[in-house]
């Protein structure tokens, strides 16, 4: 319940003011302008002259914005939750006292009704009034027929009825469009309210509940399920309007036909239960389809975020098959659903059933357990910053305790180190302080504001400065101090736009060390009281780590007066801490000051001894920070050397990776886009669709003409016997025409469903294939939300909407042609009117389409930031909660939703603007048809008069529908355009080429770079410049250099993530540019710096291709010291790893990645600081395992910690993309060059 409390008003204030933008004049214009939407004409005119831009559009009315809608709805939802809590308490009492169980699950329907009831009632009133006016038209038409039959020369009455008919249909038009406008805006308000609630819930969701929902599933709730709720709202009035219209029609027909009408009513009553059964079946299918859609989006989201792993391991085809298998199941469900609705004449009955699925999913999510803020006591007596008293915690709701019986008191202003082996509970210790875990027993105390640096740095898709400020105001002197303390000044010198350079999604365009320093800077700038630092030094170089400790974290750093709890694997730092907490299997095994633990605790002394003897690395004495002279020298040397080393090309990668905003197409829809859809639709289905629809429309006209002729003949027959003889024949023909028409309707819907599913399958496959063939740089420079948007919103339109628009457009086209033929046959003079009216129709359509199409394009692009911001929030929710910035992120979400709603609002009004004008022309057509009927007098029969005026009334809807559907086809073809646009983008080289390496290649592992040059883009400097070196077979080569020296670029070139501009790379005699990417990458091996896991089993993460036996998997797990851990899990190899590996520690994830590599037996291995996130003992294990298992392989090690390359056969020193030195470590140390200088700076014993 606490999640729904608090300051409800501040959540929804704007972050970005809209004062300078065009406010909608709708509320202040005259009545005529309001009902005809003439105030919108100016924008249509602008759109016709030039492509519309955001600044051209009108703002939302304040009452329609999320800033007003969300707090009102949340207030009602809170009441519903309180009611549910009260009912739950009563249920518990009943269960205890009377053994009865009743539980009132919170429902979304009641809060939605309480919030929007007046709007819904207004919409219903407009609808019922429009429906009543619709039935006045036949009554006036009946009066005209009566005048035509009985008083053919009474022109006055005829003209009076014609004018009355015109005003009735005009009034109906205006009311109908007012209904549509209010209906659509009310529907989108409901969607906005639900989306706002989902977003807020995502920020308060307990971690135990969060594990049941992947990022993809929550994004699907926000897009697909909230959209389904909007669809229900926009169609719900049809559920009562349709029966109301049927009843009115039956009453009118009873007056004309008497009891004969009961036959039609009986058929209708027979059809209703059949349709109810179909609707129930469709509901089940919808539930299944949503489940498959969730799985697909979840897998795609993980693939796109882990795309680097897929590309480096050549796993794209395997994961592509996984997605396609899920998609096939989804399409099968769509096929069954499509066929069922094909044979259902009352498809609207399916809407509530389908929406019930979405409502249930939304309610389950919104009722999931929240974090309990009362788990952490922030108001207590005592001078300690953090305290635990007999506290135990767990992550899973029914899981075992992860932290047990913690009792510790951390004084204010102290520096505390938390150490322990991988999986011992160090990160969980920090999470418990933050209140992220479920408390089972005991007390947790915490005082003051918190800043949190997670082990895997969370970076926003924003400028570097905004990442550091994190919503705070800029204090320039302090900001500069923070940058200097976090060693970011040298980096800023190299950025194309300084601290205004945009960082990509999840920080994809910066190194792990840079991400961690930006994350540290964000924490420091917040000036909090308590700093929780989850191993931030593991991802940075040794000399940078020293700088950070000395200038920032240590006893004389910027944070010296703050409370700092530092999780670390660097035991060198321990002598400089005030308190050391040693974690072991979720318990505090040892605790005390460094000297105290050394002297009294044998186990701790052994831990230090293991570290110092095995590594012979950084000397503890080098870390002394008491001398201000040393402090100054270190700071100056770092900055000066960093700046000297980073000349020219070192940060070319930065320049390539400034983010691109989503491009919005302009101009008319290209015919090639429609052709692509028709090709995917398959031509045979297209021609069959046209044939069946042509046949059914021709038969409909024939039926009506036959009925009209039959009526005329009946009026002339005087002999009852003669009439009875012809009746059976006429009835048989009429019934036969109806039967064939019904069969053709079913056949038409069937072939259209077949074709549309073929198109859905083909376009999804093409999109997925195109995305996976994009070069890696594309994913670094474009938010993943843009791609996810294609796979969700745009494919939803392709799957569900587009074929509906095609069908209705085709129907309307044939209907319009038939209508014109019928009217002109009755009143040939009508042809004189139809030509200019037709011209006006097409003119209005072309005038309107330019604006509508561009608004739709802009709306499509505006949805991507909503998804991106939502996904980003889900990943960084722990950081957001730790800093207490939930309110700001909710306001930011409302801002991006507001932008999307602006386009929706302008699109709704543009549709109404078009409809009013088209229907007015249709009304004129009715007027002229009626006037011509009066003019021709008794020269035509009354049945023909009735038929022609009926068709004239129909043509209003038909022509209006035709133009609108033509516009909707073009505007919704934007989704096809967006899906197909990836086909035009530059792709990476082919995965497989005609030239293939021999089986067993590479067999020696000799790598040779020959005068190799590479650049990230043609307009940028060289990232590698004239690099030439050669490794020997089975040689171990360390690659070192300052940040930005080109270490990662060298690896990228080896795997052809970046293609060379000159020179070549030869592996065992084969130029790697002459073979396919998968033949290359599939025969290389790499352990990347960031451990990426996918949701699925331990087995599927180790061996996604399914090539290895369980025995082999257990062997590699044993080599990685993971066998005991996996065997302790209930399902062992089939244990489910959550999204991103969140239910494993970062160290365990890194070990799983190592096990993954051990399964791939290749002759070349690249290590990109593979042990940065593990403790020293595990590091020893990993290093010895690599030496033993890859003794006969060539190993390239990119080193951040220099001690890892000291035992290499040779060391390659890079600087600014060039090779400075390449020799044995011994020779390089003797030579007093760059490597010797770096080793001396790191304080490593020689």
From TrEMBL:
Q: Which SUPFAM superfamilies match?
A: ABC transporter transmembrane region, P-loop containing nucleoside triphosphate hydrolases
- Entry keyword Nucleotide-binding: yes
UniProt topology in membrane: Multi-pass membrane protein
Domain ABC transporter, residue spans:
386-610, 1007-1241
Q: Name one GO cellular component term.
A: lytic vacuole
Residue ranges of every copy of the ABC transmembrane type-1 domain listed in the record: 123-355, 687-961
Keyword list (alphabetical) reads:
ATP-binding, Membrane, Nucleotide-binding, Repeat, Transmembrane, Transmembrane helix, Transport, Vacuole
Q: Which residues cross the membrane?
A: 119-139, 159-179, 236-254, 260-280, 685-706, 731-752, 829-849, 920-940
Q: What is a single Pfam family found in this protein's UniProt entry?
A: ABC_membrane
Q: Name one GO molecular function term.
A: ABC-type transporter activity
PROSITE patterns reported for this sequence: ABC_TM1F, ABC_TRANSPORTER_1, ABC_TRANSPORTER_2
CDD domains, A to Z: ABC_6TM_MRP1_2_3_6_D1_like, ABC_6TM_MRP1_2_3_6_D2_like, ABCC_MRP_domain1, ABCC_MRP_domain2
Q: Where, subcellularly, is it found?
A: Vacuole membrane
**Its family?**
Belongs to the ABC transporter superfamily. ABCC family. Conjugate transporter (TC 3.A.1.208) subfamily.
Q: What is this protein called?
A: Multidrug resistance-associated protein 1-like
Taxonomically, what lineage is the organism?
Eukaryota, Metazoa, Chordata, Craniata, Vertebrata
């Amino acid at each position: 319940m606490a999640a729904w409390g608090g300051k409800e008003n501040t959540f929804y204030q704007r972050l970005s003011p809209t004062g300078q933008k065009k406010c909608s004049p709708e509320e202040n214009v005259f009545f005529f302008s309001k009902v005809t939407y003439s105030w919108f004409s100016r924008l249509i005119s602008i759109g016709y002259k030039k492509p519309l831009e955001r600044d051209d559009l009108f703002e939302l009315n304040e009452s329609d914005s999320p800033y007003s809608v969300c707090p009102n709805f949340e207030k009602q939802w809170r009441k519903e939750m309180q009611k549910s809590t009260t009912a739950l308490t009563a249920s518990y009492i009943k269960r205890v006292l009377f053994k009865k169980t009743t539980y009132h699950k919170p429902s979304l329907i009641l809060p939605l009704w309480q919030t929007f009831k007046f709007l819904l009632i207004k919409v219903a009133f407009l609808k019922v009034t429009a429906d009543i006016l619709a039935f006045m038209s036949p009554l006036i038409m009946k009066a005209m027929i009566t005048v035509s039959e009985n008083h053919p020369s009474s022109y006055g009455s005829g003209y009076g009825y014609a004018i009355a008919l015109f005003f009735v249909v005009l009034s109906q038009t205006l009311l109908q469009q007012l209904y549509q406008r209010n209906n659509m805006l009310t529907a989108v308000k409901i969607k906005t309210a639900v989306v706002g609630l989902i977003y807020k819930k995502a920020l308060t969701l307990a971690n135990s509940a969060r594990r049941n929902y992947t990022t993809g599933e929550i994004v699907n709730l926000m897009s697909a399920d909230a959209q389904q709720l909007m669809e229900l709202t926009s169609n719900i009035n049809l559920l009562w309007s349709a029966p109301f219209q049927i009843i009115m029609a039956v009453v009118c027909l009873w007056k004309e036909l008497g009891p004969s009408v009961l036959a039609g009513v009986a058929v209708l009553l027979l059809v209703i239960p059949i349709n109810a059964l179909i609707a129930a079946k469709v509901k089940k299918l919808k539930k299944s389809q949503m489940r498959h859609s969730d799985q697909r989006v979840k897998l795609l989201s993980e693939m796109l975020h882990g795309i680097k792993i897929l590309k480096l391991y050549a796993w794209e085809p395997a994961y592509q098959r996984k997605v396609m298998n899920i998609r096939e199941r989804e399409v099968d469900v769509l096929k069954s659903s499509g066929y069922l609705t094909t044979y259902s004449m009352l498809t609207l009955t399916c809407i509530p059933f389908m929406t019930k699925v979405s409502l249930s999913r939304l309610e389950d999510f919104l009722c999931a357990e929240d974090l309990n803020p009362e788990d952490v006591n922030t108001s207590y007596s005592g001078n300690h910053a953090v305290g635990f008293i007999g506290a135990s915690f767990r992550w899973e709701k029914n899981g075992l305790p992860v932290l047990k019986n913690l009792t510790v008191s951390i004084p204010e202003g102290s520096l505390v180190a938390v150490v322990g082996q991988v999986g011992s509970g160090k990160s969980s210790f920090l999470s418990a302080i933050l209140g992220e875990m479920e408390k089972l027993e005991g007390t947790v105390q915490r005082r003051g504001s918190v800043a949190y640096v997670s082990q895997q740095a969370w970076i926003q898709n924003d400028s570097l400065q905004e990442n550091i400020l994190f919503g705070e105001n800029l204090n320039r002197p302090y900001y500069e101090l923070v940058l200097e303390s976090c060693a970011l000044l040298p980096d800023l010198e190299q950025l194309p736009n300084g601290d205004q350079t945009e960082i990509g999604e999840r920080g994809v365009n910066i190194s792990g060390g840079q991400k961690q320093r930006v994350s540290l800077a964000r924490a420091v700038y917040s000036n909090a009281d308590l700093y929780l630092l989850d191993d931030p030094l593991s991802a940075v170089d040794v000399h940078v780590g020293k700088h950070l400790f000395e200038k920032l974290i240590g006893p004389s750093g910027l944070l010296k007066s703050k409370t700092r709890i530092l999780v670390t694997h660097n035991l060198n730092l321990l002598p400089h801490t005030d308190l050391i907490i040693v974690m072991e299997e979720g318990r505090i095994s040892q605790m005390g000051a460094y000297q105290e633990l050394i002297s009294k605790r044998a186990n701790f002394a052994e831990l230090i001894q293991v570290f110092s003897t095995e590594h012979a690395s950084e000397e503890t004495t080098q870390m002394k920070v008491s001398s201000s002279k040393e402090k100054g020298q270190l700071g100056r040397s770092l900055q000066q050397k960093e700046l000297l080393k980073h000349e020219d090309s070192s940060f070319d990668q930065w320049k390539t990776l400034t983010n691109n905003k989503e491009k919005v197409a302009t101009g008319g829809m290209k015919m090639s886009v429609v052709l692509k859809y028709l090709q995917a639709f398959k031509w045979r289905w297209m021609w069959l669709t046209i044939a069946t629809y042509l046949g059914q429309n021709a038969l409909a006209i024939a039926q009506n003409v036959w009925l009209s002729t039959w009526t005329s003949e009946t009026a002339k027959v005087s002999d009852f016997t003669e009439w009875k003889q012809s009746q059976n024949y006429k009835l048989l023909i009429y019934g036969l025409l109806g039967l064939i028409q019904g069969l053709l309707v079913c056949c038409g819907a069937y072939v259209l469903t077949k074709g549309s599913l073929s198109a859905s399958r083909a376009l999804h496959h093409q999109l997925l294939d195109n995305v996976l063939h994009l070069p890696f740089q594309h994913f670094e420079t474009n938010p993943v939300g843009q791609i996810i948007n294609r796979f969700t919103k745009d494919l939803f339109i392709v799957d569900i909407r587009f074929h509906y628009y095609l069908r209705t457009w085709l129907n309307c086209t044939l209907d319009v042609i038939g209508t014109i033929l019928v009217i002109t046959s009755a009143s040939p003079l009508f042809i004189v009117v139809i030509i200019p009216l037709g011209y006006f129709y097409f003119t209005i359509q072309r005038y309107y389409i330019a604006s509508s199409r561009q608004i739709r394009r802009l709306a499509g692009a505006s949805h991507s930031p909503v998804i991106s911001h939502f996904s980003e929030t889900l990943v960084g929710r722990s950081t957001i909660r730790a800093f207490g910035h939930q309110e700001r992120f909710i306001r930011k979400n409302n801002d991006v939703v507001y932008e999307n709603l602006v386009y929706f609002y302008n699109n709704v009004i543009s549709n109404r603007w078009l409809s009013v004008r088209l229907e007015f022309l249709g009304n004129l057509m009715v007027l002229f048809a009626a006037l011509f009927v009066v003019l021709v007098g008794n020269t035509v029969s009354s049945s023909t008069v009735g038929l022609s005026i009926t068709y004239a009334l129909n043509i209003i809807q038909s022509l209006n529908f035709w133009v609108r559907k033509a516009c909707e086809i073009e505007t919704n073809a934007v989704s096809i355009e967006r899906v197909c646009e990836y086909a035009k983008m530059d792709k990476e080289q082919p995965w497989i080429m005609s030239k293939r390496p021999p089986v067993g290649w590479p067999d020696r592992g000799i790598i040779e770079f020959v005068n190799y040059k590479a650049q990230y883009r043609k307009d940028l400097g060289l990232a590698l410049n004239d690099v030439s070196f050669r490794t020997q077979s089975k040689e171990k080569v360390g690659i070192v250099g300052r940040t930005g020296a080109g270490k990662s670029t060298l690896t990228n070139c080896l795997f052809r993530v970046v293609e060379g501009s000159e020179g070549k790379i030869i592996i065992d005699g084969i130029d790697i540019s002459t073979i396919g990417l998968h033949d290359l990458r599939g025969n290389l091996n790499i352990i990347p710096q960031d451990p990426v896991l996918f949701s699925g089993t331990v087995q599927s993460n180790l061996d996604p291709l399914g090539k290895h036996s369980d025995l082999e998997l257990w062997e590699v797990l044993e080599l990685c010291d993971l066998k005991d851990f996996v065997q302790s899990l209930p399902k062992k190899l089939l244990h489910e790893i959550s999204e991103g590996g969140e239910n494993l520690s970062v160290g365990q994830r890194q070990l799983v990645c190592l096990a993954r590599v051990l399964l791939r037996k290749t002759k070349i291995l690249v290590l990109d600081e593979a042990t940065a996130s593990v403790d020293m003992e595990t590091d020893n294990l990993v290093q010895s395992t690599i030496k033993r298992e890859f003794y006969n392989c060539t190993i390239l090690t990119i080193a951040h910690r220099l001690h890892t390359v000291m035992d290499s056969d040779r060391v390659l020193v890079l600087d600014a993309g060039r090779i400075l030195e390449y020799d044995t470590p011994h020779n390089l140390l003797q030579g007093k060059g760059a490597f010797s200088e770096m080793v001396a700076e790191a304080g490593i014993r020689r």
